[in-house]
Design a protein that fits this description.
- A hairpin with a 4-residue loop joins β6 and β7.
- α15 (351-358) packs antiparallel against α16 (368-379).
- This protein has 17 helices and 33 strands.
- The longest helix has 24 residues, at 2-25.
- The model is unreliable at 1-24 (pLDDT under 50).
- Helices cover 23% and strands 40% of the residues.
- The chain is elongated, with a radius of gyration of 32 Å.
- It is of the alpha+beta class and 743 residues long.
- Strands 16-17-18-19-20-21-22-23-24-25-26-29-30-31-32-33 form a 16-stranded antiparallel barrel. Strands 1, 2, 6, 7, 9, 10, 11 and 12 form an eight-stranded mixed beta sheet that branches.
Length: 743
């Protein structure tokens, strides 16, 4: 019996050897996929034809987008599966490193509303520093990791279902780097670091950018893999015409294209009679036309169909192709239990901050959605270039290893911004701000923010924030502030005086952020308010007016709750924001008078197609007596969609209220990758201002506006016209959000 079993084993071994010999006997067919950005979607069309015609692929080399498509195919994806992946990607979101706004930490959301737009510069070693690329590639890296989980245990790319090589460029040495081993997701990401667009990435001791600079169509590497028959797909961008060279960027891009084209032509000249060259006719599809991927795929399929005669010479029988298909499969990935978490600190000053936000993943099954959400929460803090993860096995236990990388242009940042408002009738204002943010002051993410504002409002502000807690959900923030601005005193619709208000305060805030959408806080505050007459003759204090010069001390407690899941701070399309605060001024804490000040802001965004609505309400109300109520409770109203017809912050009182409905429709294509958001809108409002709380709701003022809005890197810009009952009208040119905060 044993002899019979041994005989069967010998036969099986012989058959396997014959099968391997047959495979070896067939000359290798190697696929070469060139770089070209979105034009590389044509590669998928080529793969579909190869699968239909039973052309097996024995090895693949790829650069940039060719590395993505080629790497996925080498890992076992079929052409249809790669097409489904490509169509599922939201490229506009992919090219925005931050997570969706609703998933940003509450602190970032508040900052965004306070200083929407502006320019951020790095401060490093006493010098201004800039990012190495417009996009850091955080989301792309996480996507590649998710798609290639089946290759995590594959170190050698020859051991993939199809042997693979990815090409990148060492930008420090100007040399080609060929990845044959390592982390497949990192190798692909490195290959597509288009200079100036994607930031370089450091991997295996190299600072890497797009491989197209040195080898955009890696034919030579396919030969090294043993390719006898090559199928080469060239999707490189053609040179622009002279008429299109209208900017320094277009000239620089032309120089790069010319250099790549010369190198590609040299490679193509090495092709022989056994090789097939496919050049899809992509017309005006550019490297950034990701919204036209379907067209690019069709062009790739047509290029392959036009060369069917040559491709069919590489086809095999149904039985042989079935064997290829059996090998060409994604390997199973069994989600392990995460036994430990390790956050590497070598490239980040705040590794413990990241560890806090991922610590609850331990002792739970591996879940890419949860891991990416937690990483996004940490990344959204704003001081990281990227945060990546890997799985490692140690002594029979599987752990999550996370690598945070601080921004290379940090750790300190300078933010500059400008706000303008003009009513085209002689009343204008400006607001210039600069904020210096010092991050990574300790491993748990302590940071210091220091701000100066000049213009309509003068402000000096300094704050230290320290997160703490097992998930970093708590924080403590002491702060100092000086603020000054002019405000009018109104009597029956007539401006009778103007005061200069000055406020200095110190506060200690304790906060709790249970998730990305909620923030609960309480603060102890103490300071001094002063109001000095600049122009006019106000009513007497006995009649509710202010004295010529008044100063009061205030001390109290501020309780605040904020909920915010709006998807956008400039022109929201979904979500809600609720901001409620209660300020209790107490004589026991040093206030000259006791007072209670309540502020509420509510906004709700909803959409249907290109049509968007923003419904909102706000109320500021004060109870108590004395100058503290008159000064500390001051709130302002006026401006576009904020009681339109009045100029920006024209009206001040201790009690104000507003109801509004705003409609805006996007006029430009929201699906295009590079499209300037332009809106046409209108608003209806009702509101008012009162000196006494008991008068709230009386004599409401109706108002409305029409406007054009555009979202720019400096923030939203509006050009509009507003009218309010009583004959008040104003034309507007303003920078700023439709939203208001309680600060």
């Amino acid at each position: 019996m044993l002899r019979f079993i041994a005989f069967l084993a010998l036969i099986a071994s012989s058959l396997a050897s014959l099968d391997a010999s047959a495979q070896t006997a067939r000359p290798k067919t190697c696929l070469v996929l060139g770089g070209g950005g979105a034009r590389g979607a044509a590669h998928i069309g080529v793969l579909k034809v190869l699968e239909r015609e039973r052309v097996p692929v024995d090895c693949i080399t790829g650069t940039s987008m060719g590395a993505i498509v080629g790497g996925l195919y080498a890992a076992g994806y079929t052409a249809d599966e790669i097409e489904a992946v490509l169509k599922s990607i939201d490229w506009k979101d992919m090219f925005n490193d931050d997570p969706p706004r609703e998933e940003l930490p509450m602190r970032r959301k508040e900052d965004e509303l306070r200083f929407l737009g502006g320019i951020e510069l790095g401060l490093r070693d006493g010098r201004i520093a800039l990012p190495r690329g417009a996009i850091q590639g955080q989301k792309l890296q996480l996507l590649l990791r998710r798609l290639l989980l089946s290759t995590l245990r594959t170190e050698d790319f020859d051991d993939l279902p199809i042997p693979f090589r990815s090409i990148a460029t060492d930008i420090g040495r100007g040399e080609k780097v060929v990845f044959a081993k390592g982390d497949l997701a990192m190798a692909i990401r490195a290959s597509m670091s288009v200079p100036a667009a994607f930031a370089p990435i450091r991997y295996q001791g190299h600072l890497l950018v797009d491989g197209g600079i040195v080898d955009n169509v890696p034919i030579d590497e396919a030969r090294k893999l043993g390719g006898v028959h090559l199928i080469v797909v060239n999707v490189g961008q053609p040179l622009a015409s002279e008429d299109e060279l209208t900017s320094p960027f277009s000239i620089a891009n032309q120089m790069l294209t010319a250099m790549m084209q010369r190198q590609t032509e040299a490679q193509l000249r090495t092709l022989g009679a056994n090789d097939v060259l496919l050049v899809p006719q992509l017309g005006d599809i550019t490297s950034a036309s990701f919204d036209r991927a379907t067209q690019a795929m069709a062009s790739g399929a047509k290029a392959a169909a036009d060369n069917l005669g040559a491709l069919r010479t590489l086809a095999v029988s149904e039985a042989d192709y079935a064997q290829f298909s059996a090998r060409h499969r994604q390997r199973p990935f069994d989600a392990p239990l995460i036994a430990f978490l390790e956050v590497l600190s070598g490239r980040s000053r705040t590794a413990d901050y990241v560890k806090q936000r991922l610590s609850d993943l331990v002792d739970k099954p591996f879940d890419t959605e949860q891991i990416e959400k937690r990483i996004g929460l940490a990344y959204g803090e704003g001081s990281y270039e990227r945060i990546t993860y890997d799985l490692v096995d140690r002594v029979g236990r599987t752990g999550l290893v996370v690598q945070p990388v601080d921004k290379g242009w940090g750790p300190n940042y300078l933010r500059l911004g400008l706000r303008l408002a003009d009513n085209f009738a002689g009343r204008s204002s400006y607001q210039l701000f600069a904020e210096a943010n010092f991050t990574g002051l300790n491993s748990l993410g302590g940071e210091s923010r220091n701000r100066i504002q000049l213009g309509q409002v003068t402000e000096l502000y300094s704050e230290f924030l320290q997160p703490w807690g097992n998930l970093g959900q708590y924080y403590i923030a002491p702060r100092l502030q000086y603020k000054a601005y002019n405000f009018p005193v109104d009597d029956d619709g007539r401006e009778v005086a103007e005061y200069r208000r000055r406020r200095g305060l110190g506060a200690l805030e304790l906060g709790y952020t249970p998730d990305a959408n909620w923030q609960l806080s309480s603060a102890l505050e103490y300071g001094r308010d002063a109001a000095n007459l600049r122009i006019g003759t106000p009513g007497s204090p006995a009649e509710g007016g202010l004295a010529k010069n008044v100063a009061t001390d205030f001390g109290g407690v501020v309780l605040r709750a904020v909920y915010d899941d709006l998807d956008n701070g400039a022109f929201p399309t979904r979500g809600m924001r609720l901001d409620v605060s209660e300020e209790l001024l107490l004589t026991q804490l040093g206030s000259s008078d006791a007072a209670r000040i309540t502020r509420l802001r509510w906004d709700w965004a909803l959409s249907h197609g290109a049509n968007h609505w923003l419904l909102g309400a706000s109320i500021d109300t004060a109870g108590g007596s004395g100058a503290n109520v008159q000064i500390a409770a001051l709130s302002q109203i006026g401006g576009l969609a904020n009681l339109s017809g009045y100029t920006e912050n024209q009206l001040f009182a201790s009690n104000t209220a507003l109801l509004r409905a705003i409609y805006y429709r996007r006029l430009t294509n929201a699906d295009a990758l590079f499209s300037v958001p332009l809106y046409l809108g209108a608003s209806l409002e009702a509101g008012g201002l009162w000196n006494q709380r008991r008068d709230i709701g009386r004599n409401l003022i109706g108002a409305g506006s029409v406007f054009v809005g555009i979202d720019t890197f400096l923030g939203p810009i509006f050009l509009g016209y507003g009218y309010a009952q009583g004959g008040h009208n104003a034309a507007y040119l303003t920078f700023g959000s439709l939203l208001r905060t309680n600060e």
